[in-house]
Amino acid sequence: MKGESGISMIDELTFFLGFQIKQEETDIFFSQEKYAKNLVSKFGMDKAKPKRTPSAIHLKLTKDTTKEKIDSSLYRSIIQSLLYLTASRPDIAFVVGVCARYQVDPRTSHLHGAKRILKYIEEHVWRLFFLGNNIVVWFSKKQNSVSLSTIEAESIAAGSSCSQLLWKKQMLEEYGVPQSSMVLYCDNMSAISISKNPV
């Protein structure tokens, strides 16, 4: 193959598209730690005071036209960089998604929110290992419909998760790793009660 295609052998892959790669005998580990540090430095947040959380406790960004306009290209650059980082950082997925809604006409409040995420990244490093019981799939999204209660919202989320579980179960069977049962965890007791005794 080397002779026919003109390919050449290089050293073991250690960095690719912003991901650090560590290969061991039985495992391959991916990390965006270096990418995160470069990101914080790129936007001048490496000297800023770190934050303990990625957003304020009661985050509520809106299309506030009364605030001062900012450089939209800078804001979009920060958001796009953060969106790429969410591949390995589910802890910032929600707040990055909220900030991403205001890329068309961003204001100072939106920029402060995005910069807070950068300050949080500087202080917190995440590592995810995708093996056995660890995370294999995750997502954070805005619900398509308006729920009238937390029970309804949790039930919709649980239903969507069940669809994902069934698909993963079928996929694992095709890979030769059948699962007799799969557990769905939910933190809303009312939604759990309704699932056990549908009205």
UniProtKB/TrEMBL annotation:
<protein>
    <submittedName>
        <fullName>Mitochondrial protein</fullName>
    </submittedName>
</protein>
